[in-house]
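Help needed: design a sequence for this.
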């Protein structure tokens, strides 16, 4: 499949995890990939690997986000896909009883304000072209509650979901699709390390996943590739769950 032949894709948080897997997937389908990341080493390595361009970007800075999309257009001539994916989940964001205002605001800035900024500065380019596809990374926690709370993270992802829905509706007739990707828990190095140390913690979560395991980043990337491509031409304003069945489950298989 070469669904992205000649298309220009910007991926925030493209240096690691889901962003990196998506960069690989879209590049393999012909995309010209622009990686934006605050981590210059990881971002540059990713861009080199996929034959793309790295733009050092802190997604909480309006100036840098505006420059990112302008750079993509200047360098490659269009902006076809924006995968607004950078996000954090720091340990100090925990129960509402213990999470301070600083931690709350930091997570809101990186996870929610960044998506507002990226959409704000991607959409004008797409309107000019009369087409474009935006995928914003939310999470399954945007649609269900966890007793193991990360209060600001969850609220930020709920915000991403609501904002995405509204933008999808507002710009639908201008040829711009906007969808929210809601991954379930992904098998990342951090998660593996955490659960190796604490198997009970892993078991408490895995019991809720009908498929009985966490997602691989490549499985999330495959969903992004679908949503971002013309195969999803009738899908907009959606909450696209890639969660191994978690959000549909009551009793899981033994
Ligand atoms: N991993 C999971 O289980 C999971 C589940 C659901 C949703 N998500 C979401 O998926 C997205 C990607 O997560 P991941 O697991 O691949 O994480 P990751 O930590 O592997 O990658 C995130 C990338 O974002 C970059 N980043 C962080 N702050 C930034 C900033 N201010 N400006 C620019 N770049 C910044 C990091 O340097 C890193 O390269 C996040 O939005 C996360 O909330 C992850």
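Sure. Designed sequence:
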């Amino acid at each position: 499949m070469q669904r992205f032949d000649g298309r220009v894709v910007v991926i925030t948080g493209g240096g690691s995890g889901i962003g990196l897997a998506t960069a690989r997937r879209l590049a393999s389908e012909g995309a010209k990939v622009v990686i934006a990341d605050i981590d210059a080493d990881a971002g540059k390595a990713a861009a080199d690997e996929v034959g793309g361009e790295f733009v050092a970007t802190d997604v909480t800075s309006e100036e840098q986000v505006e420059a990112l999309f302008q750079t993509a257009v200047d360098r490659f001539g269009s902006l076809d896909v924006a995968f607004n994916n950078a996000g954090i989940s720091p340990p100090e964001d925990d129960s509402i009883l213990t999470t301070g205002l600083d931690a709350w605001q930091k997570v809101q800035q990186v996870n929610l304000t960044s998506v507002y900024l990226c959409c704000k500065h991607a959409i004008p380019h797409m309107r000019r072209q009369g087409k474009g596809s935006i995928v914003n990374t939310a999470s399954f926690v945007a649609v269900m509650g966890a007793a193991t709370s990360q209060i600001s993270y969850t609220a930020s992802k709920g915000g991403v979901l609501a904002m995405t829905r509204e933008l999808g509706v507002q710009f639908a007739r201008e040829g711009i699709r906007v969808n929210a990707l809601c991954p379930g828990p992904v098998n990342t190095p951090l998660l593996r390390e955490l659960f190796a140390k604490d198997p009970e913690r892993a078991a408490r979560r895995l019991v809720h996943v009908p498929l009985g395991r966490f997602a691989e980043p490549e499985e999330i990337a495959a969903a992004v590739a679908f949503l971002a491509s013309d195969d999803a031409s009738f899908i907009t304003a959606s909450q696209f769950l890639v969660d191994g069945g978690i959000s549909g489950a009551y009793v899981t298989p033994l």
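The first strand starts at residue 8 and ends at 12.
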